[in-house]
Amino acid sequence: MLIGVISDTHDDWLAIRRAGNLFRDRGVSAVLHAGDWTSPFSMLKLRRALGPGVPIYTVLGNNEGDRLNMASKAVEADVRILGDAGLVELGGRRIGIYHGTSRLVVEAMARSGIFDVVVYGHTHRVEVSRINGALLVNPGEACGCATERRTAALLDVESLDVEVVDL
């Protein structure tokens, strides 16, 4: 099972469209967004590019100011908001998702033994590493606003291989 992983889109509609097209073309079974969409309308753009039927799970980042409208647009775009942090089970793996505003929380999630994978964002830097056996995945920033590199990731939940892709 292949999962699309993205974070920190920050309303970059071009990057969102590229990521949605990539995920659709690669046949992902689900998409995980680690927050900082910024505008609720960005969820609609990802859904249009990805197409129907593929679940999108997200957590809220520190730049989601209009959470009420975010909830409304999530329903319209068929995006499941998990709150500030969440757990999804995909392909027999327990995946924790958190925006990443606290490295302490990211590491605590990894060390907890609850998760096979911890997906996070916020730093705008790609990271694929392990802590206490848990795979940590930060897909970097889709928007390219901090590093000038637009990235997303593809996670094979069976092998736990991660491919970081430039958008």
What report would you give on this structure?
The chain has helices at residues 13-26, 41-50, 67-77, 103-111; strands spanning 2-6, 30-33, 56-58, 79-81, 85-90, 93-98, 117-119, 126-131, 134-139, 151-156, 161-166. It has 167 residues and is α/β, with parallel strands linked by helices. The strands form two sheets. The chain has a six-stranded mixed beta sheet. A five-stranded mixed beta sheet has the order 5-6-7-9-8, with helices on one face. Strand 1, helix 1 and strand 2 (30-33) form a beta-alpha-beta unit. The chain is globular, with a radius of gyration of 14 Å.
Radius of gyration: 14 Å
List SSEs in N-to-C order: EHEHEHEEEHEEEEE
Which descriptor suits the 3D outline? globular
Number of discrete helical segments? 4
DSSP strand tally: 11
Low-confidence stretches: none
Strand pairing plus helix content: what structural class? Answer: alpha/beta
